[in-house]
Amino acid sequence: MKVNVEVITGTFIDAEVSENATVKELKERIATEVKLSVKRLILVVEDEEESRRLVKDDEDEMKLIDLGVKEDAHMYLFFKHPDLVYNEEKSQGRGDNASVEELSSEAESKRGNKEEDEDAKGEEKDIAMKNGEEEEKNGEETKDDDNVEDGKKKAREGENEMDIVS
Q: What is the C-alpha to C-alpha distance for residues 89 and 132, in angstroms, rounded to an integer?
């Protein structure tokens, strides 16, 4: 059975699943496409009467057919924020010492997106620069402070020259 999944980002995924597939099986198929953890996926299904219904986490073992999903059905995909998934795991006693990365799926951790790597490097530079600026402010005078002092000195010299001329 083929289902059409419209992702909140505006892209579409055509997923092929068996007639007796469960919600979890469909989410696993989608998770590999979008490279996110199954725990982060939120599905909204459209049944025969074209009414939409949010599929709850405890319904992952239900068969798609039991939810009214037929061939070429249209679904919508939304994402949970990683912090929300972490907090849910923590509240259930499964994530006390685990980081968000440990809770993410293998697919999510293997994104390997160059843009994200560059963003991370940029953020590190920003943090280093910010820390460097704070150190200058806390310990030594900054270049701006030196420029201000030079300006004041030149102004005083100019006043002294004016006194001599008059």
A: 37
Total-model pTM: 0.53
Q: What is the DSSP letter of 98?
A: -
User: Phi/psi at 18 (nearest 5 deg)?
Assistant: -70, 165
CB 63 within 8 A of CB 3: no
Between the alpha carbon of residue 155 and those of residues 21, 56, 147, 151, the distances in Å are 82, 72, 12, 6
Q: Is 137 helix (H, G, I), strand (E, B) or coil?
A: helix
CA dihedral 114, 115, 120, 125 (to 10 degrees): 110
Q: What is the pLDDT of residue 105?
A: 42
Per-residue pLDDT for 133 more than 90?
Answer: no
Distance CA 105, CA 4 (A): 23
Q: What is the DSSP letter of 111?
A: -
